[in-house]
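Hi L.,

You mentioned the student needs an example of a multi-chain input paired with its predicted structure. This one should do, with 293 residues in total across all chains.
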Amino acid sequence: MAAVLSREATLFKKEFPITDNHMHLDPRNGEGIEAVKKFVREGGKNIFLVNKLTKDLGLSGVSVENFARLYEETIKLAELVSELGVRAFPVLGVHPAEFHFMVRQRSLEEAKEIAEKALELAAKHVCDGEAFAIGEVGRPHYPVSNEIREACEALMLYAFELARDADCAVQLHTESIDEAGFTAIAELADKAGLRRERVVKHFSPPLIKKSRELRIMPSLIATRKNIVAALEQGTRFLMESDYIDDASRPGAVVSPRSVPRVTKKLYAEGLLSEEDIWRIHKEEVERTYGVFV
Ligand SMILES: [Zn+2]
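Structure written out for the whole complex:
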């Protein structure tokens, strides 16, 4: 029998379109492009690049103009990333923690108005072909008052309506959810008239069976444990690092290398087949976002 290439070498040869579904880059407070180089060295090919917060740009005060600058910067960053041979798809929106901050700076009504306009601007960038999804939007992952929670729900519904009209996906940030939480998200998508397949639950638990039934797309943090648990229920999911690129919080993040690394490791162990990798990193990504990777 002829010498067999190691699985690692085969992986490299086949150039799987390894996709990180949720990454932030922050050239001011973190590594910026250097983080992408780490991703590339491990075999990464595509990134869904989610904007950071306006304060990370050093902007003070709360305004639609600040969101406009944040979005512009994210789109420019995606162009820089593409020079490294990685495709970066900008994902633009009002992070729920940012919205919470806005409420504290202004009144609830004013914050809502600004957030709505900022979401409209995100949708416009999608329509112009400069961004590929709205997000991350949703609810803070920590407990908040009912008033804030309701405002977040209303903004989520609005983001879904904008996504329906722009024909794009939405990346959702929420508190940790169970099966009932997935069902509530599916119902909200129905209410907005957004195809459920367009809703991506970022930082999802490995509830692959339930999310498949409900047609919501889960995106899982690329840890071995998480992905192995998911694979017990199927391969209909996306993978993400949720890299936050903040030098002041080095322990708070999974490495930008994690998606390609965990994929390669599970492939080498025989837990992920070639077919699984194509499905997770390409087919599901293309179906969800309506892009080619
Ligand atoms: Zn995020």
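You could point out the following to them. The mean pLDDT is 93. The first strand starts at residue 18 and ends at 23.

Best wishes,
N.
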